[in-house]
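Hi R.,

Here's the chain you asked about this morning:
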Amino acid sequence: MKKEDARKLILKKRMNFSETERLDLSRQIIDKVKANFDLKNKNISVFLPIERFVEIETSPLLVIEDVRIGLPIVQPEGEMKHILFESQEQIEISDWGIPEPTHGQEVEADFFDFVFVPLLAFDKNGYRVGYGKGFYDRFLAKCKSDCVFIGLSFFESIESIEDLNEFDAPLNYCISPQRVYKF
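And the predicted structure, written out as tokens:
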């Protein structure tokens, strides 16, 4: 499947979710994260859901004890920076409709042990389809070599993404409501 076809298909499916369905599926995914990954004393990057795209509710990850969490901020030049999460009071909706921290301590990409990666679709080889701007691919390329990339998906994998390029960064894992994929 081509990336643009996957984007259209998955966004259409997501838009049909009720809020109850979105939250229930999100809970199933987050429960699998907690059951399968030891995050204690780790540094993790967590995206917050963009409401208009009906994304996975990741806020339960923000309250895990003994974890240092970085939240991404999209920069106008196409990069992302991360700010350490301290409290919900830091979070505001950006002009792009993205929940982001407004202040706090900045951390570099090599700070993270785990990065939870948003996606629309992923294939059986661990490659993902995002929104097409490359923010996460550029960020993941800067992470340390042993950092674990974990995609979170409402849906199961597709067979393959036909139009990969040299900038596409594969995931190590992807978690759906039904299973944990390891690549």
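The two ends are 19 Å apart (CA to CA).

Let me know if you need anything else.
M.
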